[in-house]
Specification:
The protein has about 575 residues and is an alpha+beta fold. It is about 30% helix and about 20% strand. Strands 3, 4, 5, 6, 7, 8, 13, 15, 16 and 19 form a 10-stranded mixed beta sheet that branches. Strands 9-10-11-12-20-18-17-14 form an 8-stranded antiparallel beta sheet, with no helix packed on it. Strands 1-2 form a two-stranded antiparallel sheet. Helix 4 packs parallel to helix 6, helix 5 runs parallel beside helix 7 and helix 6 crosses helix 7. The longest helix has 19 residues.
Length: about 575
């Protein structure tokens, strides 16, 4: 499995697991002391180890001996390191069937030797899907493998010293790269710093500390909303939380934890009723994906216990309920820090009924217990609505106005108890080019439109007004300007539910018209009703509009001037 496939299918976020000081690990930690939830993680880890072993090259005559193949049949350091990471938890845990297993240890040693073999002279490794000689990806591995080193060292496994020596070789070389190498993204600074923090705990080195201080000198990229620069609520915000906790602990900088608290406080308002996290404003690859909250479990549990925070404790319980098995990918955190084995503080409910604006993210969140809405700027999907597990994934609006009529706005304006999104478009025609500037060779590209006089300028203003109702939400869409422009409103639902009251559009896979009245979308026991409908044409592939999504989509169609109010309840 490649890094991304492994993260998605086997151990979400294992790539970003910080380590803890080996001094915190005690050989006296036995099955009797481990809480039930941690024992469940151990059992889950055993399955991951078994699965990973099947991907390892075992042919002694192969130059790839010890490496692990990914889902594309590529040998790479990320999938190879995963065997060491999970294997270390198995070796250390008395409840594991791999506890002190010399057979597993030998496989892990082959993996360590393969890592050394594929490591560049400068200490970096490659992420074959995109990055080569990559300091950040080296940081991901080093941070994870220092944790593995600590677990292995304290496991009491016979013969572990040889494997530790090989792993140390890889880690020290990686530390050399991390001390001088560059990065790509904001979170990479904290990846590198967290990895160096853990290296410094194992083998203190002034150059590690100097590089950490240099990156921290740029300050933490968190805004007034409590969000990190990348706004990546499923992947990189939670990653930054975990990294900053690692650095705060290892470098004795407790002030860094305030950034984590800000993000965790904000994230309580980013939870859908079914336990999923709001991802619509992300600036990274997790934008608008379906994701649950498992990546936040460690930060919430760490600070719930440290701060005796009852709302953080409630968040932990919610995550356990909605994404419990997925938290097992962070077992290393909990094996190496027995202080987290204690019971959580008494709970105080986190917010479930609110209106909350996040201007820096261009987001408005409205939640009323088991239903919620998200209003989104800078996105063609400007509205989502959820009732339990029934999900309206998004609404889009478009017209065929000069091939540029896909509705999108830069900001959301609040006007009393309503929110307004406004788009203004123009569609000019162009007169002959100024005679004195005509290109002698008649090359069109040498006579740009910016220098041509405009005429017959068409204008179209679209205004979307969103308001809360007693039992849901209402959206009013109005246009002013050029008339008889075909327009379509898309209601994009999550696959898996049942639509009623709508008419299938011929020659489409999953596109429907709401001609009149009210339609419904039901998923299990949850239902969203929507309407009234309108269908004045069947052109759902308007020129300039985004392609239809591969999801059940209901269309309401008309012409400008478009006037329609649709209600969701």
């Amino acid at each position: 499995m490649d890094r991304r496939k492994f993260v998605k299918n086997s151990a979400l976020a294992i790539c970003s697991m910080p380590v803890v000081a080996p001094a915190l690990i005690s050989l006296k930690n036995t099955v009797d002391k481990m809480p039930a939830w941690l024992l469940a993680m151990v059992a889950q880890t055993d399955k991951s180890i078994e699965s990973l072993l099947a991907y390892q090259v075992r042919d002694k005559n192969s130059s790839d001996l010890g490496g692990l193949r990914d889902g594309f049949d590529l040998l790479n350091p990320h999938s190879t390191s995963a065997l060491i990471q999970y294997g270390a938890s198995g070796l250390f845990s008395p409840a594991s069937k791999y506890y002190r297993s010399t057979e597993l240890l030998e496989s892990m040693n082959l993996a360590a030797l393969y890592l050394i073999k594929t490591q560049h002279e400068d200490g970096t490794i490659d992420l074959l899907s995109t990055n080569f000689h990559s300091t950040p990806d080296t940081g991901f591995l080093v941070k994870r493998l220092t944790m593995s080193y600590a677990l292995m060292k304290n496991s009491g496994t016979p013969g572990v010293e040889k494997v530790l020596d090989n792993l140390k070789t890889f880690l020290i070389r990686g530390g050399n790269a991390l001390s001088v190498g560059g990065i790509h993204t904001p979170n990479h600074r904290w990846v590198v710093s967290a990895a160096l923090t853990k290296l410094n705990e194992l083998w203190p080195n002034p150059k590690y500390v100097a590089r950490i201080e240099q990156w921290l000198g740029e300050h933490i990229d968190i805004d007034a909303d409590g969000q990190f620069n990348e706004k990546s609520t499923f992947i990189y915000s939670s990653l930054s939380d975990r990294l900053l906790i690692t650095i705060a602990k290892g470098m004795k900088k407790p002030e860094l934890l305030d950034n984590v608290r800000k993000n965790l406080n904000m994230t309580m308002y980013y939870v859908h009723p079914n336990g999923e996290v709001v991802t619509d404003a992300s600036g990274r690859q997790d934008k608008a994906i379906i994701g649950t909250m498992e990546n936040y479990y460690y930060p919430y549990r760490y600070l719930a216990i440290k701060d005796n925070n009852p709302q953080y404790a409630a968040m932990c319980r919610m995550i356990e309920k909605t994404a419990g098995p997925k938290t097992g990918s962070f077992i290393d955190y909990f094996l190496t820090d027995p202080s987290l084995w204690v019971e959580l503080p008494a709970e105080k409910p986190f917010p479930v009924s609110y209106v909350k604006t996040f201007p820096n993210s261009g987001l408005v969140r409205i939640r009323r217990n088991n239903r919620d809405s998200t209003l989104i700027a800078n996105n063609p999907v400007f509205f989502t609505f959820m009732k339990g597990n029934a999900v309206l994934q998004g609404i889009r609006f478009a017209s065929s106005f000069f091939g540029k009529g896909q509705f999108q706005t830069e900001k959301i304006n609040q006007n009393g108890d309503k929110w307004e999104l406004i788009q203004k478009l123009d569609g000019p025609y162009f007169q002959p080019y100024p005679k004195e500037s005509i290109a002698p060779d008649g090359d069109w590209e040498k006579m740009p439109k910016t220098y041509r006089p405009q005429s017959e300028i068409q204008l179209l203003e679209t205004k979307v007004t969103i308001m809360e109702t007693a039992d849901g939400m209402a959206i009013e869409i109005t246009t002013n300007g050029t008339e008889r422009v075909p327009a379509a409103l898309e209601l994009i639902f999550r696959p898996g539910g049942e639509l009623k009251g709508v008419t299938k559009i011929e020659n489409t896979k999953d596109s429907w018209l709401l001609k009149e009245g009210t339609g419904t979308y039901q998923f299990n026991d949850d239902t969203i009703s929507f309407g009234p409908g309108m269908a004045l044409h069947k052109n759902i592939a308007l020129r300039g509009a985004l392609p239809i999504m591969e999801a059940p989509t209901v269309f309401i169609t008309g012409f400008t001037p478009f006037r329609h109010v649709i209600r969701f309840q």
